[in-house]
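thought: fold this chain, then report.
action: predict
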Amino acid sequence: MKKVLTTNEQDEILSTLEKRFEQNKNRHKDLDWTKIEAKLKANPEKLWSLEEMEKTEGEPDVIGYDKKTDQYLFADCSAESPKGRRSICYDHEALEKRKEHKPADSAVNMAEEMGIEILNEEQYKELQKLEKFDTKTSSWILTPPEIRKLGGAIFSDFRYNTVFVYHNGAESYYAARGFRGLLRV
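observation:
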């Protein structure tokens, strides 16, 4: 699969990201778009990943900057779990375990194919400090190995003015559960 965008596709995703950046200053106070754009242009494979996030309706936006690694952090900022990434189980093992009514894919597989990370619990809670996400849906989050070894996986949402973290069998899937991704640029 091609993981490089054409010049026109690059221009389109950069334009979309810049508009979203300007419309949502509360997510990235004190960050300069020109510096972010330069980093993106120097890393075209990251633009491809952002385009994949956009195609699955994740509405990626800059949510921070990591000084230690000199990386900008992009996350899915759609109000609800991205529509193009719902009705999926947690990982490939869970997908293979289902004998009937298999979902089309898994969160871990999709994230890997897209070149992004699944948000962990801490990242998910930090994202919720910017705005309130997943008030009607839920999102798989990175599951600790000790939970996954026992057949479980965790997901999170925002209800009653609180971020909740829950558990399910990793093979379960629901129309209102997807996953949110993180991309470091």
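thought: worth noting. The first strand starts at residue 60 and ends at 66.
final: tokens above.
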